[in-house]
Specification:
By secondary structure, the chain is of the alpha/beta class. Strand 1, helix 1 and strand 2 form a beta-alpha-beta unit. The radius of gyration is 16 Å and the shape is globular. Helix content is 37%, strand content 23%. A five-stranded parallel beta sheet has the order 2-1-3-4-5, with helices on both faces. Strands 6-7 form a two-stranded antiparallel ribbon. The two termini are 19 Å apart.
Length: 187
């Protein structure tokens, strides 16, 4: 069964991302075409990148890196839930991504962004990062506005339109994850 990790990309206290990621998981868990798991960066307590050897070498020395690598390696694809901070993704998510290399390769990714302009700029930055890591990013995306998809900028209230957009992200992420299986097996 295809496994998709839903990665919660914020560690900020009071983060809106927790409600968004749980919504993504709840919608995804109703599907039968893949298994989905919510991965919260807070559960991994990754320090600022502290590996002496570049991740592309695959020679991890720190226990937290080895644990993180095993988790990411267990997935066939990802849905990144990202806030937009200063026209980009969160430092915590970028740091978590930068710890690894081959564990990301030849997998698919969809994106759910949130922020003042729906997290669009954060998603665009993640697409650039994905390309370098040989992650196939899907076209569909969910962009959630703090002004219209949240009450008082803090209580998440997604519209039916957003759930339809999420369905497209999940469809494409699962399809591409399955399609890349032969590439992963040959790598």
């Amino acid at each position: 069964m295809t496994k998709i990790g839903i990665i919660l990309g914020s560690t900020r206290p009071g983060r809106n991302g927790e409600a968004v990621a749980k919504w993504v998981y709840d919608v995804a868990a109703k599907r039968t075409d893949a298994e989905f798991e919510l991965v919260d960066l807070l559960d991994y307590n990754l320090p600022h990148l502290d590996e002496a050897i570049p991740p592309s070498m695959g020679q991890y020395s720190q226990p937290h890196t080895i644990e993180w690598a095993k988790k990411i390696d267990s997935f066939d694809g990802f849905v990144f839930v990202t806030p937009e901070y200063n026209h980009s993704t969160s430092g915590a998510l970028k740091n978590a991504i930068d710890f690894l290399f081959k564990e990301w390769n030849n997998k698919a990714a969809g994106f759910v962004g949130y922020g003042s302009v729906g997290g669009a700029r954060a998603v665009e930055h993640l697409r650039l990062i994905a390309g370098e890591l040989m992650i196939a990013d899907v076209r569909a995306q969910v962009l959630l506005s703090l002004a219209t998809d949240f009450e008082n900028y803090s209580t998440f209230l997604p519209s039916e339109r957003q759930e339809q957009a999420l369905g497209a992200v999940l469809d494409q992420t699962v399809q591409w994850s399955k399609a890349l299986e032969t590439v992963r097996k040959g790598a």
